[in-house]
Design goal:
- The protein is built from 14 helices and five strands.
- It is elongated, with a radius of gyration of 30 Å.
- Helix 10 packs antiparallel against helix 11.
- The two termini are 41 Å apart.
- It folds into two domains: 126 residues, 3-Layer(aba) Sandwich (Rossmann fold); 189 residues, Hypothetical protein af1432.
- It is α/β, with parallel strands linked by helices.
- The longest helix is centred in the middle third of the chain and has 50 residues.
- Strands 2-1-3-4-5 form a five-stranded parallel beta sheet, with helices on both faces.
Length: 351
Amino acid sequence: MYKDKHEILIVDDDLVSRKILQTICKKDWKTYTAQSAEQALILLRNIKPDIILLDVFMPGIDGFELCRILKERKTTKNIPIFFITAAADNINEKKGLDIGAADYLTKPFNTEVIKSRIKNQLELEKYRKGIEHLVELRTSELENIKEALIAAMVIMAEFRDNETGDHIRRTKYYYRCLAEKLKDKIPDKLSDDIIDLMSQSATLHDIGKVGISDGILLKPGKLTKNEYDAIKRHTIIGRDIIERTEKYISESKFLKFAKEIIEFHHERYDGSGYPHGLKGEEIPLSAQIMSIVDIYDALTSDRPYKKALSHKEAKKIITVGDDRVKTGFFSPLILDAFKECADDFKHISLK
């Protein structure tokens, strides 16, 4: 909301002190007054002052406690607080500054000093808000770059094989669904932010297939051993693409997860996967989640060499196993999570 004047909230139980401060401030700034912390909290429901002048020693909630309360609230934590007191001692001053006060004013008040300090603080706040705005713009720009990178890579994959592009988009939603279910089981490893990054990264898991020839990628019949070995290389090709990208982007958790998922999503918990034959918890969690998601979508999708299976058939193969898929491919924890949310996968597949 636009303000034609900066606003100052004066909180002081001493009427004389409150009036003096209001007289000093009201010519240059719009002022509000409260005679207690409790009254100030009520006022702050409807106003957002640029600075709060706060008496330290008040009955009920004192200034120190009110400062703590305000610094813990999202809506008030960034409002600069000036403590005002007649007790000019280093211990109280340090205490006030330690809990977040921006400055400390002592009585009797010096009009020019108070005005100067308020003006300086308002100028600092203008620069702080300007920097915050620049950071927000930069963050938004980086987010747009990340989304553009994902979109470009998905489009690139679609040029080679439209089904690959559809598969990439679906796996994002499968991945998030499974990760959300796992979060309840391993909250120390999966937060909302990490799940967001992993789910976005999952869309790039097959990007290495751009380096596989059409003759192999779109072959309708069974692959030879050499052709299958070539297909396996998509994990390394994809990893190399991300490593090259990392040279142009500063440290990125998104690219870290993308590289893990790309390189290791065909590893198997029992050690029978590729490209490195990793086993158990040697495989990053991000890739373990991708492994089961990737197999589910492969089973339920049409491919040049096979017809799609039903959700029921795919679920049975993953949870019971057959001659193609073994339950040992997956972490028991992740397999249990899949069983719990498999019906959600069905709904995603129909979108």
